[in-house]
Amino acid sequence: MLHIVDDEEIIRDSLTWLARSRNIAAIGYESGAAVLAALAHATGIDAEGECLLLDVRMPGTSGVALFNELKTKGLLHRRPVIFLTGHGDVPMAVDMLKNGAFDFFEKPFNDNQLMDRVLEALEVSRAGGAEDAVQSRLAALSAREREVLDLILAGKMNKVIADELGISMRTVEVHRAHIFDKMNVKTAVELARLLK
């Protein structure tokens, strides 16, 4: 989902239409307060596959102030931000990029280049969600399962793992089964691919 925040209705409408022409779900907001209200009720899972386009200069809360507020409230996790401005300058763009913005476009911009960057930002958001899911599964492993996991990833066989850890081969088999179950994989190759 692309969240477009711009105080000009014609800009919101044209960007929404442009996004939808590239099969990107999009919604427009006329102010920072409106997008804050919408995102405040979202969960981290909701953020997967989301991006924000923020106009730098808006009445009330500027895009920069909104960006900082979203960041402070933890609402930018997995939500890349692309800034749009008609009055941008190089120092402002550099500052925003240093503070975590995904990109910065000056109006007038090339529609295709903007939407290509939006697609890249959405992919980064999705990848971050997948990475969070893997980290969550890893966190569910016991300390012993982590030890066995490391040795599986090193390509060691059950007998060697048992000898190195001073446990029975049957215990290694049980740990291996639990690891595969918790990580939602069926083979050591899938496990290695997931954690590469």
From TrEMBL:
Residues 1-122 form the Response regulatory domain. Residues 134-196 form the HTH luxR-type domain. The keyword Transcription regulation applies. It comes from Herbaspirillum aquaticum. The modification 4-aspartylphosphate is found at residue 55. Keywords: DNA-binding, Phosphoprotein, Transcription, Transcription regulation. One of its GO terms (molecular function) is DNA binding. Pfam families: GerE, Response_reg. This is DNA-binding response regulator. InterPro entries: CheY-like_superfamily (IPR011006), Sig_transdc_resp-reg_C-effctor (IPR016032), Sig_transdc_resp-reg_receiver (IPR001789), Tscrpt_reg_LuxR_C (IPR000792), WH-like_DNA-bd_sf (IPR036388).
